[in-house]
Amino acid sequence: MRADSTERVLRGLYSAALYLLVPVTVYHLIWRGFRHAEYFQRWNERYAAYRSAPRETSIWVHAVSMGEVNAAAPLVNALLREHPHRRLLVTTITPTGSARVRELWGERVEHVYLPYDLPGMVQRFLRHFRPQLGLVMETELWPNLLFGVRDAGVPTWIVNGRLSERSLRGYRVLRPLVGRALRSLRGVLAQSTDDAARFVRLGADADQVRATGNLKFEQTADPAAPALAERLRERAGVRPTWIAASTHVEEEAAIFELHRRLRQRWPDLLLLWAPRHPERFRPVVEQAIAAGLQVATRRHTRFPGADDAVFVIDTMGELAGFYGCADVAFVGGSLQPVGGHNLLEPAAAGRAVVTGPHLHNTSDIARRMREAGALRVGHDAAAVGDALEQLLADAALREQAGAAGIALVDAGRGSLQRTLDALADEPALHRGPRPLD
Fold first, then answer.
1. The pLDDT value given to residue 437
2. What is the dihedral of CA 388, 299, 275, 245, to 10 degrees?
3. Cystine design at 188: which of 158, 201, 265, 269 (Cβ 3.0–4.6 Å)?
């Protein structure tokens, strides 16, 4: 069978399966909407049914959710700075990602949700926005999207590419299709040499893949953090404090138990708690109250009081600042097989970091932080508690771990410039908007 015929068959089977699942997408949006009301909104974007007139876009950046938006922020900021007359479109899939886009850039960029990976929806999206350059963040390897940009003549890169062994195994059924799609791209800029090798194993050509580093190393400590920490100390008093960040629902019971355990040694210990998803804000507050803990929230009291045991950060975009208010940071998504979240954010704030064992999404960074002495990994919740207790009890150890994290982040910078250098010859960065047909 010829290569183009094989591709048509594979794409046809893949697309047919997705068309059968369209009713499931409606159910999913409704189900998520009862937990997070924003999922009831802007359905037209998810199905590429646009109400406005088509318009040209110079640069399109896709970042699925808040974590990817944060990773893309240094790149988007550089593009806005170096190409101020180019129109930028940033797409996401989740409401948290959407909110972060608006918080970071407001009206400086255009923003919509990326539609589902169906051929007709992808074509309508590309016809409507007419991007001249596509930058897809991390691991968003949607076959119809990647073939769609090829067919539309849009030069597209995978940027800050991440592909774990687990993700690679997950693509085994779609591997022939995804491999063909990868080979149609302009290139893959991977976070590490290991990620680059896995993209090649997935099907990308070796000469189109390079390791440019992780854009998350480009982040810096929140400049508002010192003032935030001072204000928190004024209200809550000077007392030991730890933060549980980006936690998932299955981790919540463990966090409560850890806090109870640690408060047996430090009765005035304060927990700053930032659940990963907004729909968990209220349930965490309710569970803390039911457990007999005095609770305050960012939205209602702004800061904890002297008698509060738990302070829930029920706002978006402030986590980096609150890292600077804690003595020790626990990063969630690691006590269950989510794969972990951003470890460099607390490291950049100079905080000792503790996680659970599930770190397949951040394996390279976790390894480097452990080797540097900036991260402690517990094999279960009890071991996480041991690490937290050890760090809370030893200021010198905390300072050493925090300094190691800052040094590691500083040493890892440079990925932004390498990414910009790789994109420097793209015509879209050197010409005006393409006229509409």
1. 43
2. -40
3. 158
Specify the DSSP class assigned to residue 101.
H
In terms of Cα–Cα distance, which of 48, 53, 14, 64 is closest to 126? 48
The DSSP code sequence of 386-428 is HHHHHHHH-HHHHHHHHHHHHHHHHHTTTHHHHHHHHHTT-GG
Checking if the pLDDT of 372 tops 50, the result is yes
Q: 375-379 contacts: CB < 8 A, separation 24 or more?
A: 375/343, 375/347, 375/401, 375/405, 376/352, 376/401, 377/334, 378/354
Q: Would you give the distance in Å from CA 328 to the centre of its chain?
A: 21
Please say if 371 is a catalytic residue: no
Given 7, 45, 68, 218, which residue is catalytic? Answer: 68
CB within 8 A of 382, min separation 6: which ones? none
433, burial (CB in 10 Å: exposed 0-12, middle 13-18, buried 19+): middle
Residue in this structure with the two tokens 């090829």, named with its chain if needed: 150
Q: Which H/E stretch holds residue 263? A: helix 252-265
Expressed in angstroms, the distance from the first to the final Cα of the chain is 36
Beta strands 156-161 and 131-137, pairing class: parallel
Which segments of 21-88 does DSSP mark as H helices, in order?
22-35, 43-46, 66-82
Count the alpha carbons within 13 Å of 426 in the hemisphere toward its beta carbon: 25
Closest CA to 152 of 60, 89, 72, 255: 60
CB 284 within 8 A of CB 252: yes
